[in-house]
């Protein structure tokens, strides 16, 4: 089917980049992009099985990174004070 399509500048840039990256014609790049965008979503979305770690932690692990940073900061301060 032959038709006229007006692309917005950002979309044109994306199609041209795809052309360069894959060595495609404009027609091929545009058709591939439309096919990908209109393809049905997979019926089985990705899922990852989970497993129990075997205990109920007494610490709230939602803020574990912050806690680890505070512990590390405390240790660094202790080492600095020991050297003085």
Task: Write up what this structure looks like.
The protein has helices at 9-22, 26-38, 64-83. The longest helix has 20 residues, at 64-83. The model has no long low-confidence stretch (mean pLDDT 86). Helix 1 crosses helix 2 (26-38). The chain has a domain at 9-38. The radius of gyration is 27 Å and the shape is elongated. The chain has 84 residues and is mostly helical. The N and C termini lie far apart (80 Å).
Which tags fit this structure?
single chain; 84 residues; mainly alpha; 3 helices; 0% strand
Order of helices and strands: HHH
Oligomer: single chain
**Major sheet size, sense and barrel closure:** none
Distance between the termini: 80 Å
Structural class: mainly alpha
Number of strands: 0
Share of helix among residues?
Answer: 55-70%
Shape: elongated
Question: Helix and strand layout, with pairings?
Answer:
Layout: H1 9-22, H2 26-38, H3 64-83
Summarize the structure.
With 84 residues, this protein is mostly helical. It is built from three helices and no strands.
């Amino acid at each position: 089917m032959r038709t006229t399509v007006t692309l917005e500048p950002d979309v044109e840039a994306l199609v041209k980049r795809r052309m360069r990256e894959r060595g495609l014609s404009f027609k091929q790049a545009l058709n591939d992009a439309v096919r990908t965008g209109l393809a049905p979503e997979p019926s089985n979305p990705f899922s990852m099985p989970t497993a129990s770690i075997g205990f109920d932690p007494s610490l709230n692990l939602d803020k574990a990174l912050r806690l680890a940073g505070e512990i590390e900061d405390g240790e660094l301060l202790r080492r600095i004070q020991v050297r003085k």
